[in-house]
């Protein structure tokens, strides 16, 4: 095995990965993101205009997407 791979392995072992959102709070964060996404989506559908697409539509879709991934991870379905 190449010595540089061993060096990288040892350096990674000394500095473990710590996620921004911990395992205990993934369900809460995911649930809040899904609720925010549904709320913004509902507001967007009530008053559709070209101005509301970047203000409400895009944040709603991003909140739903990230919320769904966090909810999947929180219940044990890894993506």
TrEMBL record:
This is Dolichyl-diphosphooligosaccharide-protein glycosyltransferase subunit OST5. The lineage of its organism: Eukaryota, Fungi, Dikarya, Ascomycota, Pezizomycotina. One of its GO terms (biological process) is protein N-linked glycosylation. Belongs to the OST5 family. GO terms for cellular component: oligosaccharyltransferase complex. It is a multi-pass membrane protein. Subunit of the oligosaccharyl transferase (OST) complex that catalyzes the initial transfer of a defined glycan (Glc(3)Man(9)GlcNAc(2) in eukaryotes) from the lipid carrier dolichol-pyrophosphate to an asparagine residue within an Asn-X-Ser/Thr consensus motif in nascent polypeptide chains, the first step in protein N-glycosylation. N-glycosylation occurs cotranslationally and the complex associates with the Sec61 complex at the channel-forming translocon complex that mediates protein translocation across the endoplasmic reticulum (ER). All subunits are required for a maximal enzyme activity. Component of the oligosaccharyltransferase (OST) complex. It comes from the Eukaryota. The keyword Repeat does not apply. The chain crosses the membrane at residues 27-46, 53-78. Signal peptide: none annotated. The keyword rRNA processing does not apply.
């Amino acid at each position: 095995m190449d010595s540089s791979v061993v060096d990288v392995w040892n350096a990674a072992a000394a500095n473990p990965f710590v996620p921004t959102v911990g395992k205990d709070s993934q369900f809460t964060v995911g649930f809040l993101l899904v609720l925010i996404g549904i709320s913004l989506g509902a507001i967007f559908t009530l008053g559709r205009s070209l101005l509301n697409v970047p203000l409400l539509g895009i944040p709603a879709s991003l909140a739903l997407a990230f919320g769904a991934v966090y909810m999947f991870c929180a219940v044990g379905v890894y993506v």
